[in-house]
Each structure stands twice: as C-alpha cells, then as structure tokens.
Amino acid sequence: xxxxxxxxxxxxxxxxxxxxxxxxxxxxxxxxxxxxxxxxxxxxxxxxxxxxxxxxxxxxxxxxxxxxxxxxxxxxxxxxxxxxxxxxxxxxxxxxxxxxxxxxxxxxxxxxxxxxxxxxxxxxxxxxxxxxxxxxxxxxxxxxxxxxxxxxxxxxxxxxxxxxxxxxxxxxxxxxxxxxxxxxxxxxxxxxxxxxxxxxxxxxxxxxxxxxxxxxxxxxxxxxxxxxxxxxxxxxxxxxxxxxxxxxxxxxxxxxxxxxxxxxxxxxxxxxxxxxxxxxxxxxxxxxxxxxxxxx
Length: 296
What we know:
Layout: H1 2-55, H2 59-65, E1 69-70, H3 77-90, E2 97-101, E3 108-113, E4 116-122, H4 123-128, H5 131-146, H6 149-176, H7 178-182, H8 190-226, H9 229-249, H10 254-258, H11 269-277
Parallel strand pairs: 2-4
Antiparallel strand pairs: 1-2, 3-4
Helix pairs in contact: 1-6, 1-8, 3-5, 5-8, 5-9, 6-8, 8-9, 9-11
C-alpha cells in the first residue's frame, strides 16, 4: 500500500507542478503581450498583493460567511476526538477548529492554513454517512490542509483572475484602437489577438486540472491517515448516488448535467473510487470509531 501511495503521490506532485508552471507561463506571456516587461512586472505585483491579502483572512471569518457555527468539545466530544486523532496522524501542528453548517446538502470543506485550520461539516452529511464514511471524508479535508492545497488553489485562482483581467484589458485596448487599425496607423499581431482571446479559457482549464489533481492526492493522503481506503470510497459512492437521485428528480440527464471532466473541478467519482480500492483489498482501520457521532 505504501509503495502505491508514494508512486501515485509523486505523479500527482509532478502533474501539479506542471499545471502551476503552465498557468504562470500563460500569465507571463499575456503580460508581455500587453505591455512587454512592464506588463510582466505589473502582473507580478498585483498577484503578490492579492495573495498576501487572501492569506490574511482568518478561517473563522470564512466559516461565518458560510453560515457555520463553532462546535466545542462538549457539543461533539466524539467528533473532536476523531479530528484530534486524524490531525495527529497527518502531522498537523494544530487541530482544526470544527464547524457545523445547518444545511441539508451533504458537504464538508476545509479552509485556513496549517497554523489556522478549520473544517466544516453540514447536517446533511451527518445524516447521510455512517461513522466510517464520515471519517474518510474528514481525513480527506485534513489532507487538503496538510498538503497546503488551500494555499496552492488560492494562488492558482488569483493567477486565473489576473489572466482574465489582463485579457479583458487587452481586448479593450484593441477596441479603443480600432479607428487607428482601420486607418493603418496601428498594427496588432494576430498572435497577440489570439492570446488575448484564448488566455482565459486556457487558464480556466489549467485551474480545473490542478483542482482535480489535488483531489486525487487528498484521497490518497486520507487513505494513508486512516488506513481505510474503503471508508472514503464508500462515502464517495454514497454521495454520487444521492447526486444521481437528485438529477433524476429534476429530470436532467446525468452526464450532460455534470459536463465533461475537463470542465469540472472534481474528478470522476468512479475513477476516484477505483484508485482508492486499488490500494488495499480489505478493511484495516487504524482509528477506533464509536457507534455513532452526535452533535449536541
């Protein structure tokens, strides 16, 4: 199992590096196309300012914006114990703060950093999953924190936004200079126009690819933390089943509603489940679970 995990995570790391470098190269090319070296410097300064600002937002502020309320240890002692065990196994310096979101939609998400981690779980997720499945989902979210995925995706999102802004600015300049173009007093390369048109789409596809890669890596890390790939695999199948039922109620075609994988931030569930079940053929939990978690 460990050998497979290391091999898969190494491939994901290389893929992540290639996608981030691709986004950075696209941004540099776009900046250079608009204003040469000054455009590159401007993009770098704007990106640095936005990244510093985004990293300063406390996790509790983000959780409140999502409607989460802090769960203390008295309200959910078993769940706090589990989070503490998972965080220790993941090597986090701090145990994530636990939040409860009173939403029927089954979901869990992480925010913050290793020094300010937080995880939210919705009421719908508690009602849908059993303890084993919930443990896998929580380990997945802790893996995102451990792997610095939140900071990485924040950086990639900022690069994507800057790319979109620069592309819009460049196209605006072309529109302003249309009279000069018609009069033959200004010349714009067709390559520059093509870059301005395609840059946002390419940046978006690279960002989606990065997000999917980090989801695969978080799945593998969660399996290592719990020693139980089946827990997360069955949770993913349960969530996919619920999603399919919802689409049928809305009379929507399943694949068409979800769209092709290249346009999604999360990889195909069946592939995630296959990769998890390839790791180990039997249930070998490393963390004892109570009969049922509860929230007071």
